[in-house]
Design goal:
The complex is a heterodimer.
Chain A lengths: L15 E10 L3 H13 L3 E7 L4 E7 L4 H8 L1 E12 H8 L4
Antiparallel strand pairs in A: 1-3, 1-4, 2-3
Chain B lengths: L18 E6 L6 E9 L2 E8 L3 E8 L2 H8 L39 E5 L26 H12 L8 E5 L9 H10 L4 E6 L2 H5 L3 H8 L3 E5 L15 H11 L2 E5 L1 E2 L8 H10 L4 E8 L8 H7 L3 H11 L10 E2 L4 H11 L13 E9 L2 E4 L6 H16 L4 H11 L15 H11 L3 H8 L1 E7 L9 H5 L3 E4 L5 E3 H6 L5 H7 L4 H7 L14 H5 L2 H6 L17
Parallel strand pairs in B: 5-6, 5-16, 6-7, 7-8, 8-9, 9-11, 10-11, 11-15
Antiparallel strand pairs in B: 1-2, 2-3, 3-4, 12-13, 13-14, 13-15, 16-17
Classes of the chains: A alpha+beta, B alpha/beta.
Chain lengths: 99, 554
């Protein structure tokens, strides 16, 4: 288990996360979906989506992960246009239907 | 509901073979264009991965049965409030965008909540149980309440049925509290997925579950012999006895594997009928494969819904026939009619027609009678659809309801139907007056026989996942269709449960149970074999001629 996961019952696994918005280039829709799958396999990536139609992506990283390095390794022509740390609570709130 | 986006496979739903869909490469999980097509009387799904080549897998064993099921394909309503989260997933990268995304078509009919990854068994085909030193996934009662609240807020149809699953849920000391929480949150159907061991060996536990609010136990039961059911053959009679005392119903859940237990379907049905006061149904689940498996092995073990139904026909001496089974979305005509009468969205089962099939059987004067023997099911559904369409076109609800009242008896064969059943009254009350009180009695006097074929990476069809209505609630708020959860466990089940697990050491510190947290069940076969419940459980079949399991009915 990675050290950044909380190990207390009932607590969220992260206090803060890094949300990165970027543009990218990939040749096809299939390549984009596959790249999203591969990125999500990384333990440091919590959630994310790459949109082939707009060539834009959002990834939520665990804060100790080097987001820039991962993006530059996995994608070409990456331009990060937003990079901020937010409370993980906000991710959970946006996931939930009832909040 | 107007969909925000249309997936590339949405428009081919219900189309004639061959049709286009999308799938994944079982090796690398790249999403791929795929085709569902007729392969000499069987239905296959094929696609080609640029790296790993072609995968061509049987999808349904009968094209004719596939086409019959396709006739009941229904349009699902979708969700008004999807929960795609901050990442704004659009569904274009299905199944990596869950969820539920704006491209999902079905509301949650049954919410699954995994409450533990501990299990007191170590079945060879299951990878989902913790071993010594592994992190333990056990969401707290508050976390579970949040998941329940989340599903309850789906619009326009809130979730109303939940299944607690595992691991083995009954290993949790607070399982009773969890069930009470589900009831507090307004869930009318609370199901517990269990091996039944805790119930068999803890007198009063079944009663406690019932009192807390469990509606049904969903109990794995793979066969009636040591060969077909090494898991709980000896214990099931004790589980049934405890449930009988508590008045708690059971649905048996056999996983069907060709060459293992495909000769035992008739015996399982006979066993259920002999215990029909407790066993409410059987949900046969043709095997879905975990991990990579060579084609020859898949072909040796794969069984699909039409073949399973054919085996049932053979092993029940022709009493239960393929024509008695209907695909699950066939009931959408009933939902459609009630929605039209009430002007309010209703619980619907609009999953893909290839996902499952079901029927009901009754015992009348010692003989088994399938429901379609005395109800013209297709005629009734067609008539309901016509009335609903007439009302939508401006006809009077009162007049259309009166037409139903006048016509309803014509769909029922009074001579063949069970005498105790007043079906015309039951149907009219349910359809027009929305009085469902008699439906409970209907269920108690019948045995439900269902099939649900969950997918694996080899037969994966995105079209099915888009319409899935059995979902997993996750502690991070996302809701994942069953087959996405299990076909891509590395992104959903395993990833999130690892995030939300506690370390083994921390778990042990907090653990308050009397046995070791990972204690395994040890069977005392000799003692169990002497138990009266066991001795009387697996004797001669009562309804269908005994079939040797080793014959496999092939």
């Amino acid at each position: 288990m990675k050290e950044w996961f909380e190990t207390k019952f009932g607590s969220a696994p992260y206090k803060e996360v890094r949300i990165v918005k970027f543009s990218f280039e990939l040749p096809t829709h299939e390549d984009t979906a596959f790249k999203q799958y591969q990125l999500l396999l990384d333990e440091g990536v919590i959630q994310g989506h790459l949109e082939f139609a707009t060539k834009k992506g959002i990834l939520i990283f665990e804060t100790k992960t080097d987001a820039k390095a991962i993006l530059e390794k996995e994608l070409t022509l990456v331009t990060i246009y937003s990079n901020e740390v937010i409370a993980y609570e906000k991710v959970m709130e946006s996931n939930n239907m009832f909040v | 509901m107007e969909k925000k986006k249309q997936s590339v496979v949405t428009n081919s739903y219900g189309a004639d073979l061959p049709y286009a869909t999308r799938s994944v490469c079982p090796e690398c999980k790249r999403t791929l264009d795929a085709q569902v097509y007729d392969n000499n009387g069987k239905v296959n799904i094929k696609r080609t991965c640029p790296e790993h080549g072609e995968f061509d897998e049987v999808y349904w064993d009968s094209t004719s049965e596939f086409n019959r099921a396709k006739g009941f394909a229904s349009n699902a309503r979708g969700l008004l409030n999807t929960n795609v989260g901050i990442t704004e997933n659009t569904g274009t990268n299905c199944p990596y965008d869950c969820g539920l995304c704006t491209n999902h078509h079905s509301h949650t009919a049954l919410a699954n909540i995994a409450v533990t990854n501990r299990c007191d068994l170590s079945c060879w085909y299951c990878f989902f149980y913790a071993k010594e030193g592994d992190p333990i996934y056990e969401p707290t009662v508050d976390q579970i309440r949040n998941m329940l609240k989340n599903m309850k807020h789906q619009q326009p149809v809130p979730c109303n049925a939940v299944q607690f699953t595992g691991g083995e849920p009954t290993l949790r000391e607070d399982m009773i509290d969890i069930i009470k929480v589900a009831r507090e949150e307004g869930y009318q159907h609370v199901q517990l997925n269990t091996t039944g061991m805790t119930i068999a060996f803890n007198e009063g536990y079944a009663q406690a579950l019932r009192n807390a609010g469990v509606s049904t136990l969903y109990v794995s039961f793979d066969g009636t012999t040591e060969k077909t059911n090494p898991k709980n053959l000896y214990e099931m009679p004790k589980t049934i006895e405890e449930c009988r005392k508590a008045g708690l119903g059971i649905v048996l859940v056999p996983t069907l594997i060709k060459g293992i237990n495909d000769g035992d379907l008739g015996n399982i049905i006979d066993f259920a009928l002999r215990n029909v006061d407790v066993i409410r149904g059987i949900d046969f689940q043709p095997v879905s494969f975990v991990g990579r498996m060579p084609k020859s092995q898949r072909e040796a073990q794969r069984i699909t819904i039409p073949s399973a139904i054919d085996l049932i026909e053979k092993q029940t001496n022709g009493v239960i026939k393929p024509k008695d089974f209907f695909t699950i979305p066939c009931v959408s005509s009933v939902t459609n009619f009630i929605e039209t009468i009430t002007n309010s969205p209703q619980y619907s089962l609009d999953n893909h027609f290839a996902c499952g099939a079901a029927t009901y059987i009754f015992i009348e004067e010692g003989k088994v009678v399938p429901l379609p023997d005395f109800i013209d099911v297709e005629g009734l559904f067609k008539f309901l659809n016509e009335r609903a369409e007439a009302i939508k076109l401006g006809k009077s609800k009162t007049i259309e309801s009166a037409k139903l009242l006048l016509k309803i008896k014509s769909f029922i064969n009074e001579e063949k139907k069970p005498k105790a059943l007043n079906l015309a009254k039951l149907l009219f009350n349910a359809l027009v007056k929305h009085d469902y009180s008699a439906l409970g009695e209907f269920h108690k006097s019948s045995l439900f026989i269902g099939m649900m074929h969950f997918m694996d990476p080899y037969n994966y069809d995105q079209q099915r996942v888009e319409r899935c209505d059995i979902h997993y609630a996750m502690p991070d708020g996302r809701v994942i269709p069953f087959c996405a959860f299990n076909v891509v466990p590395e992104l959903y089940r395993d990833k999130v449960q690892t995030q939300y697990s506690v370390s083994w050491d921390d778990f042990k510190k907090e653990y308050k149970g009397k046995d070791s947290p990972l204690a395994k069940y040890k069977r005392d076969t000799a003692k169990l074999a002497e138990d009266e419940a066991f001795k009387s459980a697996y004797g001669e079949n009562k309804f269908f001629k005994q079939k040797e399991v080793e014959d496999k009915g092939e």
